[in-house]
């Protein structure tokens, strides 16, 4: 019995020592080496699918679709044409059936384009996205968008799902924000047809 009590007391003491802060003497920094997992790319949807299969449960449709898309993931590259002083990087992007020069904007998450939904006077000098001429466009009638940038410029419009091709990578049903209006700062620019 005394041996059992001694083991319990040692376990309690060990748990207290693990929970208490550790004081470092001398050097106050440390590092932990990260063990690489080789060239394996983590794939959340695929891992979820495998977990459902392991327990003989059918995965929800959104998990199945995400896993299938991830399994067929694509790689590629696209050339860009930097504007003066690297103020923007323009790349040819096919949206629906039109090729537009889009500014790769790493500071925002939107894909918006000049469109036929804008007043004709605001379309001049740009390649324009025409959702009506794209056989793959699908209006997202309950969705609209507005974006405001830190310099005061902005744009707004309606949303379509359409095929988008960047280099050798294709998204078959990508949300595309078709502009109905853009701020005067964008109207002064004629080098880009939208942002990605």
Automatic annotation (TrEMBL):
Keyword tags: Signal
Signal peptide residue numbers: 1-19
Gene3D superfamilies: Acid Proteases (2.40.70.10)
InterPro entries on file: Aspartic_peptidase_A1 (IPR001461), PEPTIDASE_A1 (IPR033121), Peptidase_aspartic_dom_sf (IPR021109)
Keyword Signal in record: yes
Domain Peptidase A1: 89-196
Family named by the database record: Belongs to the peptidase A1 family.
PANTHER family (alphabetical): ASPERGILLOPEPSIN-1-RELATED, BETA-SITE APP-CLEAVING ENZYME, ISOFORM A-RELATED
Name of this chain's protein: Peptidase A1 domain-containing protein
High-level lineage: Eukaryota, Fungi, Dikarya, Ascomycota, Pezizomycotina
